[in-house]
Write a structure and sequence with these properties.
The longest helix is centred in the C-terminal third of the chain and has 14 residues. Helix 4 crosses helix 5. This protein is mainly α and 238 residues long. The protein starts with a helix and ends in a 6-residue tail after the last helix.
Length: 238
């Protein structure tokens, strides 16, 4: 599979799906759901220029370290952490890039994930401000909040329906703007959920991502998961 990918005989999407499967990740287990990378950082432009490297996220860094000031925060958290009982090892991140709640967060508009989310929240929808209501706002939250280090799920590259509230669920309204949470707010460069998926998938298969995807794979599936390489890469999880 690796050789096929290197020879461009299979797509980046197919290779990531195969890696997830080999790593024991599966659609049948929310706690081990397939994980995909954030690949873009431009969610505000009117047009998406895939020939411009500046629109892409730095795939060599964990998503939590995309901003310098947060990167410094995590460095010092690791250096200064000490468990008095000596049980908990040092870590950069107290949460994880993939977990069951995160999967339900992204797929809240689609069953059976809607029901699972409601069960998780003791029989009701979570507060509207904490729900997945906007792709640009979700990216910005990653940049602003050191406690949010979620990567993406495969659906961001093939399943436009999860961005629409086709079942008409009452997801509440945002506290400050009073905006009703309905369909997911898309980047300006996407004119519909289908257009977002098309351009996002095109970005995944772009030359820039093809040349740098291995750097992210090192963090999630490779040698930077544990040990000195993980410490150096600021990639140690609780």
């Amino acid at each position: 599979v690796l050789q096929k990918w290197v020879n461009r005989e299979i797509s980046n999407f197919d290779y990531l799906i195969q890696l997830n499967t080999m790593a024991g990740r599966t659609y049948n287990d929310l706690a081990q759901y397939p994980v995909f990378p954030w690949i873009l950082r431009d969610y505000t432009s009117e047009e998406l220029d895939l020939n411009n490297p500046a629109v892409f996220r730095d795939l060599s860094k964990p998503i939590g370290c995309s901003v310098v000031i947060i990167k410094i925060y995590f460095f010092f958290r690791y250096e200064n952490f000490e468990d008095p009982l000596g049980i908990i090892d040092k870590f950069h991140y107290g949460t994880h890039y993939s977990n069951a709640a995160g999967v339900m967060h992204y797929l809240i508009r689609v069953e059976p994930f809607t029901t699972l989310h409601i069960q998780l929240q003791s029989g009701r929808f979570d507060c509207a401000d904490r729900q997945f209501h906007s792709i640009p706002a979700t990216w910005q939250a990653l940049m602003d909040n050191p406690n949010d280090v979620k990567e993406l799920i495969p659906e961001f590259f093939y399943f436009p329906e999860f961005l629409e509230n086709q079942n008409g669920f009452n997801l509440g309204q945002l506290q400050i703007s009073k905006e009703v949470v309905n369909d997911v707010v898309l980047p300006k460069w996407a004119h519909s959920p289908e257009d977002f998926i098309y351009k996002h998938r095109k970005a995944l298969e772009s030359e820039y991502v093809s040349a740098h995807l291995h750097e992210w794979i090192d963090l999630i599936f490779g040698y930077k998961q544990r040990g000195p390489a993980a410490v150096e890469a600021l990639n140690v999880f609780y």
